Amino acid sequence: MMPQHFETPADAVAYAVIDNARRSADLTINVHATSSASARPCAHGYWHGHCPLCRGTT
């Protein structure tokens, strides 16, 4: 769900990069959920190593 307005084109690009990373993480979660029963999502809802917001800290 992309917002309708961005302050600058760079904001739109940054959002698209983050949104794409989120979608990739969602696909990874679907593929690995059954094999990684001990894995837990971070505070942002991403799985270990997939969060663009806290990468390297989870």
Automatic annotation (TrEMBL):
<protein>
    <submittedName>
        <fullName>Uncharacterized protein</fullName>
    </submittedName>
</protein>
